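Two entries, shown back to back:
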Amino acid sequence: MNSKSSNSKVYLSSIPLPEFNLWKKIRKENLSSSFNLEITARCNNNCRHCYINLPANDRGAQQKELSFTKIQNIVDEAVDLGALWCLITGGEPLLRKDFFDIYLYLKKRGLMVSVFTNATLITNKHIDLFKQYPPRDIEVTVYGVTAKTYEKVTRLPGSFQRFKQGLELLLENGIKVRFKAMILRSNLEESVQITKFCKKKTKDYFRFDPFLRLRLDRDLKRNDEIRSERLNLAEIVAIERADLERFGALEKSCKKLIQPQFSHKDCRYLFRCSAGSGTFTIGYNGFFRLCFALTHPKCVYDLKNGTLRQALQEFVPKIKQLCSDKKIYLDRCSKCGLINLCFWCPAHAYLETGKLDQPVEYFCQIAHARVDSLLSK
């Protein structure tokens, strides 16, 4: 990677962060406890809001997918470096014909394994696998509770019926299921019913997210679709206030989330999160990413030309030292006391604007709307 980008005025600091020395020392002993493994970007659905999906029969995408052998090598190295947990994700991971081989290899290497799926491809064969080698959990996305709404999101006739059948197979056989839901314009009218459906089906866990990320491949047409599905400020606040558990958690953490002391700090560093520190993502195409959303070409590492150890020990520290001298960043995001209530981060800034250090007005407006909501109760 280059040490300076003339377009975004992002550069590598010559002065390491003080905490880096301790961070690097910890890394040498145990480089990561978990990682996300994208085994495909392909999906059998075509959801309006999806930030990654490609057609199920996309040969180009399939040819870029890591081979089972390469996945084995990466997994071996991750385990040797201290990994304990792995999330298999996509796309729709069950599309891979060698899904069973991949899953079993992760389990036999002693990893706790979770799987993200839309559940539409679940068969008795998957159930037999999960019963014999139980996953940590299977996390299923719920797009709607009626065929009309569900298939408005997925754009695939018959997908709702297949979703219900797959989900029932999982639940009837005692497989641990967790639920998540993306709330978008196409399913907003069913958001309350979606929450009730999920909480009724499991006592363990449910989360929803009103924030729709833009495409990792920066596809302009698909990004326009995603923006059209985004909720406005009032809708986001109303949904969060309607969920007593979620709003209660925000309210309880209000003092921690609103940190006015940030406004007195002068910090040029872009990355002040835990990206690359406790977990990382392996893309379906073999590129190492500090987090699933960070796809800036100078912030990804090609594992086909290097090792996981090199990525963690040599590449990650360089990315974590990226700085900016852009005035709008230094005057706004860098000092903002509402950063924990905002969707802004360098990864999301790049997806939205093409720059790591550019503020995003939509995010800023949401953060202020959340504060007004929390303080008005």
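entry 2 starts here
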Amino acid sequence: MTNSKNPADPEPQKQESLFTHLVELRTRLIRALFAVLVVFLGLFPFANEIYTYLSVPLTRHMPEGSSMVAIDVASPFLIPFKLVLVLSIVIAIPIILYQLWAFVAPGLYKNERKLVLPLVVSSSVLFFVGMAFAYYVVFPLMFAFFTNAAPEGVSVMTDIGRYLDFVIKIFLAFGLAFEVPIATLLIISTGIATVEDLKKKRPYVIVGAFVIGMVLTPPDVISQTLLAVPMWILFELGLIMSRFVLKTERSSKAAH
């Protein structure tokens, strides 16, 4: 009894297709990692200067004569190294997202491909705007409050590692919070909810924004409010964007 395979058997074709996709995925990942590496090599010589710039919102409010400290022996090298690595990934986000888009684009419909690329660009811009808002608006107010709240006789001397971990958390919180318009647009575009449905849920959104602000920011009213209020405003912006996108899609369908 012979085990001859049918030439039309789809199994080898499936295996070949899977192998092709894996090779494509590997290529995209290598390109994304290469972009991070290039940015890292360009920034690493300036690691100490970048950390100094990052610490300005705190150091300008510290009492005269006090400074930041490095508790661990290797911290003076490892902390700026960590900062540059994280910053390299953040700067390379548009390239990383583009590689992801290029990988999934062949499997998308034409109208979906038209939507994905603008979303990649806008989400990257909003993430950077959120981080900039945290650095230039939130940090000065927050650190001024913390340093002035220190009891008399207590020297404010923050460890450089703990400071970096703290600001990374705040950067991520505000960067992700500024993605609210994109999330709103996707919810409406995919049909999960309509503009009218989300408008009715506005009170819950406002309460949820303040709850998220309480969870993701330090326990002070200033930073919580500075996260919650922009999230609410960006939610409203997402509703406006959704109306515009839906109107454009209807006009396009009517023209065809």
